[in-house]
What does this fold into?
Amino acid sequence: MTTLAEENYLKAIYKLANGEPVGTSKIAEELATRAASVTEMLIKLSAKGLINYKKYKGVSLTGKGRKLAIQVVRKHRLWELFLVEKLRFGWDEVHEVAEQLEHIQSEKLTERLSELLGNPQFDPHGEPIPDKHGKFAHHSVETLSELPAKAEAIITGVKEQNADFLQLLDQESMTIGTKLRVVAITAFDASMRIKVGKENEISVSSKVCGNLYVKRTK
Amino acid sequence: MTTLAEENYLKAIYKLANGEPVGTSKIAEELATRAASVTEMLIKLSAKGLINYKKYKGVSLTGKGRKLAIQVVRKHRLWELFLVEKLRFGWDEVHEVAEQLEHIQSEKLTERLSELLGNPQFDPHGEPIPDKHGKFAHHSVETLSELPAKAEAIITGVKEQNADFLQLLDQESMTIGTKLRVVAITAFDASMRIKVGKENEISVSSKVCGNLYVKRTK
DNA sequence: TTCGGTGTTTAGGTTTGCCTAATTTATATT
DNA sequence: AATATAAATTAGGCAAACCTAAACACCGAA
It folds into this structure.
């Protein structure tokens, strides 16, 4: 059972996550609320096992929390598409109504809505709509290998769902949505030095680079 | 601005209204809450001009309150129909989702939804869907004149929207949805003695009877 | 006309989610 | 290493809706 407020916090954290823990005041800004209110809610979400929270250290979603956040995103984007496709809304007037509709609790409704729309993979703004299991269609088929030095990008997915690989990503705090920057490319073995989030600079092998789908942002 | 809780109270009062003021504990029962909570809310709704409330005397909706309640009913029934017609829900599994959807605030959404469904006049349960101005389609074309003695019925509408006539109805606390019972028919002038609500027994002329649409309940 | 019972209201608490102000912690700079 | 500043947390409150228990009002019957 999650309340409307909780869902909005999860969604905000999900949106702001980029490999590093998200700070309290970023969340406050995103939700147009105050830091003190956020701290309070973080404690509650943490107790429910939806986020990892350490005082003064920011938060990240747990698997459970991320799953929930993604379902809210799924509903939001499905409703946006519904409004545009079936009710002739302009894609600019769709957001605030979808903000309300995304909190309707009925799995059946969500799945049938998706079906009505032809199980779409992208919403009217071109954002991917996660499927019922939380899987995203890839925005692009560009892999990290193809980026030049200094490029910035967001991880949009992985090519092969190998368990060891996923574990490695987890270890490096690289998940879908993580922002990164190519610092340098090593000519010798085609490995890359990349900056994940603000501070962490790491080396990744060419094999890893070729297996990571990204969407360039710069 | 009405909150979700307020809307539910208005809807309950609307549903329970039958010409007489509605009692606190009836509302409590309808909303699965306690009488004390109801009293509190009644004071608030009264301050907002949505109900007429006198301590210990029960409540009735004001014009403003009724309009609001009817819009909630409209949305509820439109969503029910949508779920059944467009998403293949069974009409028995529709109610609780519609309870959530009915509170979505967007006039545009409501009107477009109605349009998508072909501006329907009845929901899947056969209940009439009020139009955007709050007007109900008549369930039947039977008028009060046609009922035999002892029949019970609900007022579903009026034939001619004459101002004097409507004022008369108002005076007698007869509105759409009011339950009544035919006590006796006067052979001489075809006027009727009817019981409105629990106690009020009144006489109505044949002209009035012929102008009132009703739906028999017994 | 008083009395009792039913229904209603008042009084006083709880929870959720928000707030401001004061304090504490982490960090960046000298 | 000491300190200033920015960010986060704690403390103490508020409003909306709910609750229980106690007090009160209305109405029918004795």
About this structure: Chain A has a mean pLDDT of 89. The beta strands of chain A are 51-53, 59-61, 152-158, 179-185, 192-196, 200-204, 212-216. Residues 129 and 135 of chain A are 8 Å apart (CA to CA). Chain A is about 40% helix and 15% strand.
